[in-house]
């Protein structure tokens, strides 16, 4: 991993952990309308964006860590899909509703976020940079 990226490892890990905590809080808060303000985007858009950001951060962390490989990306994606399912399934414990379609939008968002980093990593590798290590 290039030294220029290595310095981002700890801040990116902290940002990813903090974002994950904020996401769990937001998805379990009993009155989400209190958090969203006037004219929020649709619920499905929020799921897509929230989990897209999580996928992007987690994949970037994986790339910067130097542990990038097709297998590690697959394991990351599977773990995040499972996390999204647990996140959705536990919402009724807090007065929210679990909806399979919400989870589907979470998964599409994860794929989009991870896909951005996969594409960026491939582009950098083809230009001679190797942020995530071997393909």
Structure notes:
There is one protein chain. By secondary structure, the chain is mainly alpha-helical. The protein has helices at 3-6, 9-28, 32-36, 43-65, 70-89, 100-126. It is elongated. 25% of the residues are buried.
Summarize the structure.
The protein has 135 residues and is mainly α. 73% of the residues lie in helices and 0% in strands. The protein has one domain (3-33, 41-126).
Mean pLDDT: 89
Biggest sheet details: none
Terminal CA distance reads 13 Å
Low-confidence stretches: none
Q: Element order, helices and strands?
A: HHHHHH
Percent helix, as a range, is over 70%
* Radius of gyration from the alpha-carbon trace, in angstroms: 16 Å
Question: Which SSEs are present, and which pair or pack?
Answer:
Layout: H1 3-6, H2 9-28, H3 32-36, H4 43-65, H5 70-89, H6 100-126
Helix pairs in contact: 2-4, 4-5, 4-6, 5-6
Key features of this structure:
single chain; 135 residues; mainly alpha; 6 helices; elongated
């Amino acid at each position: 991993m290039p030294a220029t990226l290595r310095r981002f490892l700890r801040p990116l890990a902290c940002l990813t952990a903090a974002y994950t905590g904020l996401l769990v809080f937001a998805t379990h808060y009993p009155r989400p309308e209190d958090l969203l303000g006037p004219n929020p985007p649709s619920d499905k858009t929020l799921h897509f964006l929230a989990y897209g950001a999580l996928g992007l951060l987690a994949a970037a962390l994986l790339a910067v860590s130097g542990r990038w490989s097709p297998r590690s990306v697959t394991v990351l994606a599977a773990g995040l899909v499972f996390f999204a399912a647990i996140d959705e399934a536990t919402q009724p414990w807090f007065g929210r509703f679990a909806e399979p379609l919400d989870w589907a939008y979470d998964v599409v968002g994860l794929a989009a976020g991870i896909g951005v980093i996969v594409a960026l990593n491939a582009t950098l590798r083809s230009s001679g940079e190797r942020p995530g290590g071997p393909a």
